[in-house]
Amino acid sequence: TMKNPVPQAASLLLEKLMLLVHVRPLLSGSGEETLPPAPGYYDTSCFKRGDLLEVPRTLFIHFGIYLGENRVAHLMPDILPTFTADRRQIQQVVTNKRLILGVITRTASVRVDTVEDFAYGGSILVNHMDRLFEDQVLANEEAACRAEKLVGATAYSLLWNNCEHFVTYCRYGAAVSLQTDKFCETVKMIIRDQRSVLASVLVGLASIVCLGLAPSTTLPTIFIPFFLWMAG
């Protein structure tokens, strides 16, 4: 039996787009990665242990759980834990190469970094998702303890185990990824709409053959949506 291509296509596209979320900007022409902001760049006095932190990126959002004392637990693709258990090496800031190889091999780690390393210069939203899970919010201490228990190497999947799954499990007790679900629904909708246009073209062609409609008036009407579909 043939596999449904929609989930596979969505997964492949998500993998490519997710790289844009995590990959840090490079210094133009230097080949070296930019440095994160210096300690104290963010005011952490308003953060409470167990808070859910969001850092909006261009296409997606990166998530973490605040543990207190300027520490954030977050899930990141990383291939290094596959080759070594040396915590000192693993704890070094994840480079782009490590991250990309982690996405490709579907390996990751739940790591604890400073707020500066976690946010990498982005703006931070605090408990922004609580409004969607207002009846499921766990106590802050329980959320932090859940995050701490998961620290270490883990499998990585854009659809089933990404940074959003990690934080929603810790703070709401259910591992979900709303942005992944929304993206997959959008992909399905686009594919469904394209199939509808193609079906209308085939029906129009069949009507010409079976009913003898005038090609001079019917063909342009039929092929306008077809050409729009191909261009899209």
Automatic annotation (TrEMBL):
Example of a GO cellular component annotation carried by this entry: endoplasmic reticulum membrane
Membrane topology: Single-pass membrane protein
Subcellular localization, as worded in the UniProt entry: Cytoplasm, Perinuclear region; Endoplasmic reticulum membrane; Late endosome; Rough endoplasmic reticulum
EC number: 2.3.1.135
One GO BP: retinol metabolic process
Active-site residues, as the UniProt record annotates them: C163 (acyl-thioester intermediate)
GO molecular-function terms, A-Z: phosphatidylcholine-retinol O-acyltransferase activity
Secretion signal span: 1-28
Domain (LRAT): residue spans on this chain: 52-179
Catalytic activity, as annotated: all-trans-retinol--[retinol-binding protein] + 1,2-dihexadecanoyl-sn-glycero-3-phosphocholine = apo--[retinol-binding protein] + all-trans-retinyl hexadecanoate + 2-hexadecanoyl-sn-glycero-3-phosphocholine; all-trans-retinol--[retinol-binding protein] + a 1,2-diacyl-sn-glycero-3-phosphocholine = apo--[retinol-binding protein] + an all-trans-retinyl ester + a 2-acyl-sn-glycero-3-phosphocholine; 1,2-diheptanoyl-sn-glycero-3-phosphocholine + all-trans-retinol--[retinol-binding protein] = all-trans-retinyl heptanoate + 2-heptanoyl-sn-glycero-3-phosphocholine + apo--[retinol-binding protein]; 1,2-dihexadecanoyl-sn-glycero-3-phosphocholine + all-trans-retinol = all-trans-retinyl hexadecanoate + 2-hexadecanoyl-sn-glycero-3-phosphocholine
One protein family per Pfam: LRAT
Keywords: Acyltransferase, Cytoplasm, Endoplasmic reticulum, Endosome, Lipid metabolism, Membrane, Sensory transduction, Signal, Transferase, Transmembrane, Transmembrane helix, Vision
Enzyme class: transferase
Transmembrane regions: 197-230
Pathway linked to the protein: Cofactor metabolism; retinol metabolism
Function per UniProt: Transfers the acyl group from the sn-1 position of phosphatidylcholine to all-trans retinol, producing all-trans retinyl esters. Retinyl esters are storage forms of vitamin A. LRAT plays a critical role in vision. It provides the all-trans retinyl ester substrates for the isomerohydrolase which processes the esters into 11-cis-retinol in the retinal pigment epithelium; due to a membrane-associated alcohol dehydrogenase, 11 cis-retinol is oxidized and converted into 11-cis-retinaldehyde which is the chromophore for rhodopsin and the cone photopigments.
UniProt similarity note: Belongs to the H-rev107 family.
PANTHER family linked: LECITHIN RETINOL ACYLTRANSFERASE
Protein name: Lecithin retinol acyltransferase
